[in-house]
Design a protein that fits this description.
Elements (H helix, E strand, L loop, with lengths): L8 E8 L3 H13 L3 E8 L2 H10 L4 E5 L1 E2 L2 E2 H10 L6 E5 L4 H10 L3 E4 L5 H61 L7 H28 L8 E4 H18 L3 E6 L3 E2 L1 E4 L1 H17 L5 E11 L2 E10 L33 H11 L4 E6 L3 E8 L9 E2 L17 E2 L3 E5 L3 H13 L3 E5 L2 H13 L6 E5 L7 H10 L6 E5 L6 H8 L3 E4 L4 H11 L5 E2 L11 E5 L3 H13 L3 E5 L2 H11 L4 E5 L7 H11 L5 E5 L13 E6 L4 H11 L1
Parallel strand pairs: 1-2, 1-3, 3-6, 6-7, 9-12, 18-19, 18-20, 20-21, 21-22, 24-25, 24-26, 26-27, 27-28
Antiparallel strand pairs: 4-5, 8-11, 10-16, 12-13, 13-15, 14-15, 17-23
Helix pairs in contact: 2-3, 5-6, 5-15, 6-9, 7-8, 8-9, 11-12
The structure holds adenosine-5'-diphosphate.
The site of adenosine-5'-diphosphate has 20 residues, from helix 8 and helix 9.
């Protein structure tokens, strides 16, 4: 066995010493240390010593106690006070316990007596100082990294807020313009702005998510979640997009499913929307099915989801790559589909954090199957049911807690049976019904209504009728300046039809055969201002009054317009002080919509002030970035809305007030 040579440590050493003999002795001590390759710099006074130390290039400083008229202690103190991290070893001629203690107290790494110095003692002091230096450097590096991360987080939070606020205005005002009756000619262009704005928002969300994942800052918040509600919500949202693309979307359960699961519902929703949306995006004809089941994996029962499409498929060699960030199989596709290639990477990461895994199988030209699992929490005792997506609206005949609507709906259809069926469902809610058998009769009825200063709250317009069809009738009705909602009914759902029809002036599209749940969705949407629970039994409700606390003038104005369109009165406060002034006058608003980023106060502190002084209020936090959502643990905060605020989000707040 050969003797391994000891590794040699390199070290830059500064010696502050006014005596040349002592310099020579110290240098030879250093040269005797075979394990150290030292590079010695010698200075003779404390001014030069401090200057060299400040330049910061030394691993160790050897400092003589007696420097002419001065003591090395004052240099030591100055160096430590100036934040110099180089370890300093004090050298002195005589042993002096008092001095020793003082030097260590001032922050010296060690204290050596020149006359007693052995090679071993010197080597130990150097070794100790070097490891202390290494430790210190690591600590400084860690602090710097933490500070970097903190400022990156602050920057991202700020950026997110700064981007969401103008996006709120872009999306909100475009939606308002689309709803107004002065913009028929500009509908296609407005739809382009709206779609691009939404796209920008989803890119922003993806980039923020990814940066949170890389910084290990993404936290999940598992909570008891109704699986049926979660799936119904996703289905309602994406079914429209599927229909627009001429595709069928189905959701079903393979085994009975737990009614309640414990997951981060927002994140699970995000994964499902991403996968289903991809399936729609990459499928030209056919269908998308979503299947759910529970399966025993090792020690745990897991919840599985399978999304199957009949689309373009993914080439075998790229199957594993698609979960890496920024991956798109662009060259394989004949046309650009948009997206940053982040969705699957984020979904895979989220799924892993939800305790599951994701897998994909695909055949080019035939379609793709994405399967993933999540940990649903403890479901051993949970009640289980097959999944049913028909919204349970209860008994519509007017019993407790049913949907009660007011207003009048004009049903335009050439088929008497269909008119009767829709009428039956509508009348069951309490709303009134009128009929027209064709386009010409519909135009005449609308004109007649308008002439007497009235309007229909909703027109359900079949597209295919003999004579004047639904399209021509709607165009003619819109030409008279009539701006109330018209919803198209059609059996021929083709790709792009929704866009075509909204360009003609329709507000929405329903596919035939129309189901009760679809019809109720539309009724609730367009007759929403009149909904009330029967146990309130009031149709004559005093207008709600909200306080909007928002410093951005445009965002505030938009919020007020949206609230007004929902029949809600609002008062505006631009700052925390204005907010407190308004509360001092009225004491209670139906809701306080509060942006946390105010110029004169921390939003969380403002919530505490409101809770303390006006505890009867309920606050909805309006937030520019997700972390704010849990910003306040206050009991008066009911929920938080992430910017951009949509009319739909405000509508859901309004519904909780009644
Ligand atoms: P993107 O935002 O580009 O859709 P994703 O990470 O969601 O990003 O998807 C990455 C790529 O994987 C897509 O650009 C597409 O090439 C491919 N891909 C994802 N889902 C499907 C699917 N259902 N069918 C075909 N290709 C898909």
């Amino acid at each position: 066995m050969t003797n391994q040579p000891k590794p040699v440590t390199q070290a830059k050493i500064l010696l502050v010493e006014d005596d040349e003999d002592d310099y020579i002795i110290t240098r030879s001590h250093l040269e005797d240390l075979t394990s150290l390759d030292s590079q010695l710099t010698w200075v003779t006074n404390s001014v030069e010593g401090l200057q060299k130390l400040t330049e910061g290039n030394f691993d160790i400083c050897l400092l003589d106690y007696q420097l002419g008229a001065e003591t090395g202690l004052s240099l030591l103190k100055q160096a430590v006070d100036n934040g110099i991290s180089t370890p300093i070893i004090m050298l002195t001629g005589q042993p002096d316990k008092q001095l020793d203690l003082q030097a260590l107290e001032y922050g010296a790494a060690d204290f050596l007596v020149k006359s007693e110095l052995s090679e071993a003692r010197f080597a130990r002091a150097i070794r100790y100082a070097l490891s202390r230096r290494e430790f210190e450097l690591e600590r400084l590096n860690r602090l710097r990294l933490e500070a970097d991360n903190r400022s990156k987080d602050r920057f991202l939070a700020h950026l997110s807020h700064e981007l969401r606020t103008p996006l709120s205005s872009i999306l909100g005002y475009t939606e308002l313009l689309l709803e107004s009756n002065h913009t028929e000619n500009a509908r296609p262009e407005l739809n382009i702005i709206l779609n691009n704005g939404k796209h920008l928002l989803s890119l922003l969300n993806d980039i923020l998510d990814l940066s949170r994942i890389t910084a290990n800052k993404l936290e999940l918040r598992p909570e008891p979640t109704s699986l049926r509600h979660l799936m119904l919500d996703i289905y309602t949202l994406l079914r429209v997009t599927a229909i627009d693309n001429g595709l069928e979307l189905t959701v079903s359960s393979v085994t009975p499913l737990p009614v309640l699961i414990t997951v981060d519902g927002t994140r699970l929703r995000q994964v499902l929307i991403n996968l289903i949306y991809n399936a729609i995006k990459f499928t030209d004809t056919g269908s998308i099915s979503v299947e759910l089941w529970v399966q025993q994996d090792a020690a745990k029962e897991m919840l599985y989801f399978r999304i199957t499409d009949t689309g373009v498929g993914i080439p075998q060699r790229q199957l594993k790559e698609i979960f890496a960030p920024f991956t798109q199989i662009e060259d394989y596709l004949t046309r650009k589909k948009g997206g940053a290639g982040l969705g699957l990477a984020i979904s895979a990461e989220l799924i892993q954090r939800m305790g599951g895994y994701i897998d994909v199988a695909s055949e080019e030209g035939k379609g793709s199957v994405f399967t993933f699992s999540v940990d649903p929490g403890d479901i051993a005792q949970a009640q289980r049911k097959q999944l049913s997506l028909e919204p349970s609206l209860g008994n519509v005949s007017g019993a407790h807690n049913t949907l009660t609507l007011t207003g009048e709906v004009l049903i335009v259809d050439d088929l008497a049976d269909l008119r009767k069926l829709s009428a039956h469902w509508i009348q069951a809610t309490g709303a009134l019904v009128d009929f027209a058998e064709n386009g010409a009769e519909a135009i005449a009825k609308v004109k007649h209504k308008v002439a007497s200063g009235k309007y229909y709250d909703l027109i359900l317009m079949d597209l295919h009728m003999p004579g004047i069809g639904g399209r021509e009738a709607t165009v003619a009705i819109r030409e008279t300046g009539y701006g109330y909602p018209v919803v198209a009914l059609t059996a021929a759902m083709a790709k792009g039809i929704r866009q075509q029809l909204t360009a003609l002036g329709f507000n929405d599209v329903l596919s035939k055969p129309i189901t009760k749940s679809q019809l109720y969705r539309v009724l609730r949407c367009y007759l929403a201002g009149h909904t009330a629970l029967t146990d309130n039994s009031t149709t004559d409700i005093a207008p709600l009054h909200f306080l909007v606390v928002e410093d951005d003038t445009e965002a505030a104005e938009l919020m007020q317009i949206l609230l007004q369109s929902l029949g809600v009165k609002s008062t505006l406060a631009h700052s925390a002080e204005e907010c407190m002034r308004e509360l001092a006058l009225l004491h209670r608003f139906d809701r306080i919509l509060l942006d946390l980023g105010l110029p004169d106060s921390d939003g969380v502190q403002l919530i505490e002030r409101i809770e303390h002084n006006y505890p009867d209020n309920i606050v909805i936090v309006v937030s520019g970035h997700e972390h704010d959502v849990a910003a306040s643990g206050s009991a008066i905060v009911q929920q938080s809305l992430l910017k951009p605020i949509t009319k739909q989000a405000l509508h859901s707040v309004v519904l909780t007030c009644r």
